[in-house]
Here is the input.
Amino acid sequence: MSLKAGVGFSMENDAFASGSLACQGALDQLKEEPDVLMVFSSVKFDQQKMLDGVRSVNSNALLVGSSTAGEITAQGPHPRNSVSVMALHSSQMKFVASVAEGVYENPRKSGSEVAGAVKNLSEAPLQTFFMFPDVLKGGGSQVVLGVLDVLGENFPVVGGASGDDFHFEKTYQYLGGEVYFGAVVGLGISGKFRLGIGVGHGWIPIGLPMKATKSVGPLLQELDGKPAISVYEEFFGEKEVSAMKHQTLAKLSVTYPLGIPIPDLEEMLIRDPLTVHDDGSITCAGDILEGSVVRLMIGSRESALQMAKRAAEDSLEGLDGAPVRAILIFDGVGRNKLFGERAGEEITAIQEILGANIPLLGFYTYGEQAPLRVRERVQNVEKTATVFQNESVVIVALGD
Amino acid sequence: MNQIKKTFSRFQSIFRMKKTFGMRSKLVFTVLFVALFSLGAAISGLVGINELTLGAKEALSQNANIVGRVRDSFAALDVVAKELQTLETLEYTADLLKLEISLQKIESTGKSIESLMKEDAFNSSLLSDPKTVPAFFEEARRAGEAKKEALIFLQERKKKEFAVADDRARKQIAEALSSLERARASVLELTNIASVSAEIKVGELSGLARAVRNNIFVISLIGLIFAIAMSMVFVEYVLLTPLRRLSEAAFRFGKGNLGERVDVERGDEMGMLAKSFNLMAANIASTTLALEIQITDRTKNLEDRIRVNQDQILEFEKTNQELMKSTKLLIRRDLELSRANERLRELDSIKSEFISIVAHQLRTPLSGTKWTIDMILRGPQKESLPTELQTMLFKTYESNERMIAFVNDLLDVDRIETGRFQYAFVRMNLADMAESVILEITPQAIKKNVSVTFPHERKEIPEVFVDNEKMRMVFQNLLENAVKYTPDGGKVEVALVREGERLHVSVKDSGIGIPEESLNKIFSRFYRAPNAMKVSTDGSGLGLFISKKIIERHNGIAWFETKQGEGFTFHFTLPL
Here is the structure.
């Protein structure tokens, strides 16, 4: 049993205290010197103080993390603002981490930079790459592409985009004791371990299909020749949407995202609209190709739960029978809204498959990254390609 | 004239489309006719040619005669020539010539010798080579002898033979020459005669041949014209007319007159063609009619279907619109529900927070109250108080204790929900814990006359990995409930059984049970079944909630079985 994990969390009001208690809880469970600390926190806490609290307990281990829209541990989704820490120790694994800023300006470049830096730091060939990007300005797809530019198209990349407790104002990324925003933090893992990844969402299309008649990157300008926002106006009423124009569209659309059918893919790719512009165009968390078919999606607890279970099964399968030592979950923020008070059911379902007493840490994200299995029609070969999407649940199982 | 008409009509009848004659037969008739005509012309030509042949034969025999005679003349000439050759080959001539040559040589040698003998130089040369001298003189002597012999021989020959032979030869040659001359003259004559005769014959033959050629030409021309005329008639009557009729009929048919037919009574190919045409036209007409009927039917069907489809499309569009409408409604309703749910969550969160605050806030004064009453009831002041007051204080103390227990439960729930319920797992045997809790509860059980049993073999109960304090809470909750809700004389039974890789714990009572309508609520916070409320006002409705949470944290599974009035059994399993 070379890989050990411990998880701790805290809901204290004081940022420093919360950080330190969470870290202490993780270390208490780990009972070993940690190699890496994954820190996920609410933006309610002063981010720097919170990190200082974590660092006050352990300042040696590598520290990566991100602000969230809620965290998840083996107890289930936390009902209140919290700080959560997973501490990992392994004699067979090596961890390296880096950060790249400038995601708002050139997301693809930032993706390449962070992946390049992590790759350079790693002495052994990387086995997997965890990433925590800031996608508030919509660069999700591009950051992932930037990372894949360096690591290769089929490299297993997983991660979750930072959140900010559903405010959609400012999200943070952590590396070492530093707090960043508009950045992407990457954690590379090499050495001997097993990795199982599962992903799925279970959102279903509603209404008639539309076509993205005009779009540039994540900026969706027109749907069926009409300003993109008209879809939401039509379904929710202008009054509702008009209110959203002054705040963040995401608050409404996160439970009614857009879906893009992808050939050879069982489920549609989900895109969260984030902000509305005066001309009625919408900035989404990820790119929408011009000409794509676009559907309005609606959540179904049953199918979301079913897909979560399947994702868990997929991740378990990836371990090839090895026992699960740690579970990481990157759960789309809309799912938390969808499940509401029953958000715990999703986590319980996952635990039923992977084991309830396994250290588990996750958070509600503004976008998930995971390799999707695509069966190519031409060669009929199955290959995986990491994509950025929203409202999915990404389950990462780590084993020896 | 009548005869012509009759012939023509017969002729026509041959070519008319009678059943008895096929097209091929008519063609054969025509060819035969033209062939007969050509045969006549050929016969007349052959007669002419025969005459020509006879003339030619005559001329040839004349020529042969002349040639025979010429051949005879040349034979005669050959004889003459042979004779002349005989004459020329007479040997004597050669001998004569030889002799003459020998004589000339001898003469020249003698003359050379004589001239040499006259020169001095000769002697000196002889002296220089003594061997040649006798040979030379020998040669000179022989020459002289030979000369003498030759002269004698020559004289002899000249005398005896030469003259005679010469004369005979001359005569024979003269005869021969004259004979030759005659022969030549005869041949010339013969040649002339033959030439003249041949010329005459050739002239005759040419005239005859020209006549024959003219005849043949005329006859052939007539035949050709006739043949052409016949062919034209044939083509016109047999082919073109019916073809034209057929073509016109086909054209009219093609134009749409499907009733168009060709009137024919012929048995030949044309007739068959016309019949075939009629058959085809009839078939096409009937097929077309059938098709038209079919098309009409199908068109009608199609129109019906299009109408149905259009109706369906309209229906579909209408449904689509309705669907969009209901989708909008659904989404708006969903949104409302989500919002309501969100508000409920907020309220729940506020409630939790409120409970947490209240619990925390209550705990201190309750503790204070407990401490104060405890002080009074245990202190020296107790004796100075009236008994009634003491009883009241005691009841207050008990109520305060219940309050404290309730607040503790509230705080536990808050700790569980906020993750502050810290666990420390150790491996232990739950039999000890069960016994200890049973011991704690025994006074209450005795008070209610409820028997609590725990039949077990300690060594058969495997150890499990538990948090001692939390698991104790579970046993306390379950046993307290069991005793509380079991009437006088009832019984409570605790069991710990190994089931594979898990430990199965059950607490069974013979109490009031739980009504069906409450079954899905008993694990909710603050829920108490109506029948339970009747039995005891005491209870927070948090015990089972807390127990379940603790069991789940141990990776355990909790459930129950009950029937109102027939007891309640709580089960849970824990991994070994």
Observations:
- The first strand of chain A starts at residue 3 and ends at 10.
